[in-house]
Description:
By secondary structure, the protein is α/β, with parallel strands linked by helices. Helix content is 46%, strand content 14%.
Amino acid sequence: xxxxxxxxxxxxxxxxxxxxxxxxxxxxxxxxxxxxxxxxxxxxxxxxxxxxxxxxxxxxxxxxxxxxxxxxxxxxxxxxxxxxxxxxxxxxxxxxxxxxxxxxxxxxxxxxxxxxxxxxxxxxxxxxxxxxxxxxxxxxxxxxxxxxxxxxxxxxxxxxxxxxxxxxxxxxxxxxxxxxxxxxxxxxxxxxxxxxxxxxxxxxxxxxxxxxxxxxxxxxxxxxxxxxxxxxxxxxxxxxxxxxxxxxxxxxxxxxxxxxxxxxxxxxxxxxxxxxxx
Length: 278
């Protein structure tokens, strides 16, 4: 990006959000970054006092989402890119999860992202430009045991953004869904939430415990490289709606989609049997 742009990014205290904010700020761009605790980005505030507009936001608070997003557009006139990054992982079998855990992850990873986009849309439509980037996961296409509610939130937000992308294209607004594979961020090694585990699900369902332990090997994804590819995608019209990051993630996604396609093709006669033929 040769010209200076303004980005609104939720959840810049760690992970992809922080990597993106750091790279953008270092390149001279302006970032409206949200965090739940301002102390988490004190270093960035000190280094970029004029181009980092830090805001406290819990995306589960819908009224706060409206206020923060609306005021960001008012202060900066134009926001070129809106990035939904705030979120976390929840691990455990469906039966192991509490009602509170179920409600909280949907409020954060699904509803929070929906409300950020809905609040930004009137402003983006008025300026007749802008890009919405939804940080999802290849877990928005591929499901594993022990991750049911995380997959529910990611499958859900991907369907929402796919629909919105078609609705807003006539207004000059572009949408991108980013599907990273495993990366060396706090998603696995710090911020992951784990249910109260039951011995009945020991085995494949609890395989995520090995993944969450750094002693078993770190994830293959480089957060800095992934953040750079996300930033570059804004200026690359050849990037499709779904952008997979990580060779393992792409391989697993293609395998699952091919399996799913074969499943659907096997149902041709069954599907036709329910058509009205007279």
